[in-house]
Design goal:
Elements lengths: L2 H23 L7 H8 L7 E11 L7 E7 L2 E5 L3 E15 L5 E5 L2 E9 L5 E11 L11 E14 L2 E15 L7 E14 L2 E5 L3 E4 L8 E15 L2 E14 L7 E11 L2
Antiparallel strand pairs: 1-2, 1-15, 2-4, 3-4, 4-5, 4-6, 6-7, 7-8, 8-9, 9-10, 10-11, 10-12, 11-13, 12-13, 13-14, 14-15
């Protein structure tokens, strides 16, 4: 077994133990953790959350090295009379292997997502709105120089223990401060969650992307995998923990083939 696989397994075990520790050390919740878990699985719920998403990418183009990506993703809903406005921001911190023990680190392009969603939806919950990408990268490996904009949409349904849906975003470059690469990115994320109760859930949420400017055979990244999440209360603070493992069944030659994703989110229910 490769050392990289062993390190992945060690991380999975460590985070799984952390998830399980919630049962032993969490204070008695004052909220229904199962219902709160469903809110965390709804990208356009009225829940204020502050997620930190840690991604370790290995194999493929990186061989035994690791490309690390931390996404800071605060979500802030604004409630109006008939509609909610959900503001989602993604601030990526990137760390690339740069030869030997050297690494190239820094911030990537920041994205701002705005969804307008009915405040009293029916069985189908939906939202639409504009997406923005700004040329904020300080990491030379991730610089695009692109100001990009496009549409986004989310749709989902909740049936018993299931939360099933997906989101679709498209970013088109409308002004570029440099040369290649430019931002012309398509993102689709289907998600299927099964809630066991007590805040535990099985999660499938691969982030599928297409770079329309890439050469043929290099456009798509398609991961397949699954994960486990736990919504609980620590010291009276609702939190969500999750670990997911994905393998890219389709990827550019410059991408990793395996990703482990760990999410820690602070939750602020009303």
């Amino acid at each position: 077994m490769r050392r990289t696989s062993i390190r992945f397994i060690d991380r999975i075990i460590a985070v799984t133990l952390l998830l399980g520790a919630g049962s032993a050390f969490a204070q008695e919740p004052r909220v229904d953790t199962t219902e709160l878990a469903k809110k965390t699985q709804n990208p356009i719920s009225d829940l204020v959350s502050v997620p930190f998403q840690f991604n370790w990418n290995q194999g493929g183009a990186y061989a035994d090295a690791t490309f690390f990506n931390l996404n800071f993703q605060p979500v802030a809903p604004i409630k109006l009379e008939n509609f909610n406005i959900i503001l989602r921001t993604i601030v990526p911190y990137l760390s690339f292997p740069a030869g030997g023990s050297e690494r190239a680190t820094g911030i990537g392009d920041i994205q701002a997502q705005v969804y307008f969603a009915p405040s009293n939806p029916g069985k189908l919950i939906w939202g639409i709105g504009p997406m923005f990408s700004f040329p904020t990268a300080t990491n030379n490996f991730a610089e695009t120089g692109s100001w990009a904009v496009g549409p986004g949409a989310v749709a989902l349904t909740m049936t018993g223990p299931w939360v099933i849906g997906g989101l679709v975003n498209q970013f088109w470059n409308y002004y570029d401060e440099g040369g290649s690469p430019e931002t012309n990115l398509f993102v689709v994320q289907p998600f299927i969650n099964y809630n066991f109760g007590g805040g535990w859930a099985l999660a499938f949420a691969p982030l599928i992307t297409a770079n329309w400017d890439a050469p043929p055979g290099e456009k798509w990244t398609v991961p397949i995998g699954v994960g486990l999440t736990r919504t609980t209360v620590f010291n009276r603070r609702p939190m969500n923990f999750g670990v997911q493992l994905y393998r890219n069944v389709e990827r550019p030659s410059t991408a990793a083939d395996t990703q482990i994703r760990v999410v820690v989110a602070l939750l602020f229910p009303k």
